[in-house]
Batch of 2 targets.
Target 1
Amino acid sequence: MAAWPGHARNPVLPYPLLLIAHLFAAVMFVGAVFFEVLILGSALERVPAGVKRRVESAVAQRARRLMPWVLALLYASGLGMAWHYRAALAQPLASSFALMLALKIALALSVLGHFIVAMRTRGHGERIARRFQRIHVSVFCHMLGIVLLAKGMFYFTG
Ligand code: HEM
C-alpha cells in the first residue's frame, strides 16, 4: 500500500471533491489527446486536402475555446491536492511515492509548456501541421507517463 497514506482534511475544499474534479478534467484532456493522435490524425489522411484543412481549423478553434478551462480545472485541482503532500514533496528522494509524484508534476508542467506553444502557433501549411503533430505525439507520451505515475505512486512503493 501507499508509503505516504492519508489525505489531510481541508475545511475549504474537501480532498475527494478536488480528486473528482481532477479526474474529470484529466479524462477530458487525456481523451482529447488520445482522440487526436490515435483517431483524428489517420482519419483525416483519408479525406480531400480541403476538407482536412477545414476540419483541422474547426477542431483547433474548438480546442482553443474549451481546453483552457479544462486545463485550469486540471492544474488548480492538482495544486490543491499537491498541497496535502507538501511535506512529501519537500523531500522528493525520501520515498518512492514522493519521487513519483514529483516526476508526475514535472511531466504535467512540461505538458503545460507544450500547450502554451500550441496555443501560440497559428497558420496553415505542411510545416505548421508537422509541428502540431510533433506536439501531439509528445503530449501523448507525457500522458502515458503521467497516468502510470499517478496510479503507480500508490501501488509501486518501496
Ligand atoms: C496534464 C496534467 C495532468 C494529468 C493528465 C493528471 C492526471 C492524473 C490522474 C489520471 C490521476 C489519478 C486520479 C485517480 O486515479 O483518481 C492524478 C492524480 C493526482 N494528480 Fe494529477 N494530473 C495532471 C496534473 C497534475 C498537477 C499539475 C498536479 C499538482 C501540481 C497533480 C497532482 C495530482 C495528485 C496529488 C494526484 C493524486 C490524487 C489521489 O489519488 O489522491 N496533477 N492525476
Note: The chain has one domain: 15-152.
Target 2
Amino acid sequence: MSESQAAVREICDAIIKRVDRAYVAECGRKNEFPQKLWDMWVDTGLLSMGLPEEFGGAGGSLKDIVLALDLLHREALLLPIAVTNFMSREPIMHYATQAQKERYLPPTATGEEFFSFGITEPDSGTNTFKIKTTAIRQPDGTFLLNGGKTYQTAFLESSHCLLVARTSPLDSEDRTHGISVFIVDTTLPGISATPMSIGMYLPEQQYQTYFDNVVLPADSLVGEEGKGLSILFSSLNSERLLVAAMNVGQADYVLKRAAEYAKVRAPFGVPIGSYQSIAHPMARAKTYVEAARLMMYQACDKHDRGESVGLDVNMVKILSSEAFKMAAEIAMTTFGGAGVDVSQDILPFYIAAQNNTVAPVNNQIVLSFIAEKALGLPKCY
Ligand SMILES: Cc1cc2nc3c(=O)[nH]c(=O)nc-3n(C[C@H](O)[C@H](O)[C@H](O)COP(=O)(O)OP(=O)(O)OC[C@H]3O[C@@H](n4cnc5c(N)ncnc54)[C@H](O)[C@@H]3O)c2cc1C
C-alpha cells in the first residue's frame, strides 16, 4: 500500500466513525444535501486528493480517490458531488491552459467551488454525436451558447459546469469533428435550470438546464475548438472508474446486510442463509464483486501510469454494475417482503443498482464497444 493509500484509509476510517448510514439514508429520504458528509470531504482533505500540490491539492492519484469511494460506499456513505467534480478535474489537469488550471483547480480542493458535468440531452441520449447544444464563435472571440441538457447532477449548486457542445454542425463524414468542451460559469445570464423529480435517494439534486444566448468568454474553451473528443474521453474514462468504486462498495454493503439478515431470519426454524437458494447467489455476487474490484484497481494503475484504458474501464463498468445488480437482487430476495420496508433501507440499493446499468452509460452500448474493440466485431452504433 502506498503512503497516499494508507492516508486515504485512515481518513475513511475516521469518517466512518463519525457519520453513519442512518444519517445519509435520512438525507436521501428527505431529499436533503448530506452537509455533514460534505464537510468531512472538505475538512479531512479528501476532496483535494488526486490534485497536484501546485494547484492546492494533496497529490496522489485517481486510484486514491477510487479507494476512498470504495471504502466509504462499503458503509453506504454516498458521497455528494464526487463523480462530476473529479471527472471534470481530470481533463482540466491534462488539456487546459496553465491560466485555466490556476483559476479553476485550486477552489475544487477546498470545496469553495466544484464542477458539474453536462453532456446528456433530452433527444440525443446516449448518442453524444447528435447533441444539439451549440456554442458558436462570435467575431469578438466569445462563444454564443444555446440549447439545454438533462440529468445535470448538482448543476445549480456547482460553480462551473464542464459542458460539451457543438461548435460546428454534425458532419456525416466525420461525426467526431465539431465537439468542443467548455468551462461554463453556472451563474451566467441566460442560464436557467429546473430540478427534476426522480425516484432515487441520491445525495445531489438533478436538473434540466436551458441555455439561451449565453455569452461564454473566449477562454472558456478547453483544448482545441472542434476537437474535444479526447478531452471528453479523459473525463468519461475516469467517470467509469469512480462509478465502479461506488458499485463494488455498495454491492458489499447490501451483501453484508443480506448475510446478517440471513443468519437470523428463520421462518422454518433454520436460518434462511442455510438454504443454497439464498447462499449461492450471495456467494456468486461476492465473487463478481471481488473480480470487479481487482480489475478496477488494475485499470486505475494503468490510468495512473498514463496507459490507454478505454477497453479496461468499459469492462470494469460491466463487471461492477452487474456485480452490484446481482448483490442487490439477492438482498431483496433475502429480505422477502421486508425488502420494501423503508425502515430496512434495502430498496434504494436495488433501484440504484438497476440505474447503474444504464447510467452513466448503458451496458448495452458498452458491450457493443467491447465486442468491437476486443473481438473485432462490426461497430453497430
Ligand atoms: C441519476 C442520474 C444522474 C445523471 N447525471 C448526469 C450528469 O451529471 N451529466 C450528464 O451529462 N448526464 C447525466 N446522466 C445521464 C446519463 O448519462 C444517461 O441517462 C445515460 O447516458 C443514458 O442515456 P438515456 O437516459 O438518454 O438513454 P437512451 O440513450 O435513451 O437509451 C435508452 C436505452 O436504450 C438502449 N440503447 C441506447 N442506445 C443503445 C445502443 N447503441 N445499443 C444498444 N442499446 C442501446 C439501452 O438499453 C438504454 O438503456 C444522469 C442520469 C441519471 C439517471
Note: The CA atoms of residues 22 and 257 lie 13 Å apart.
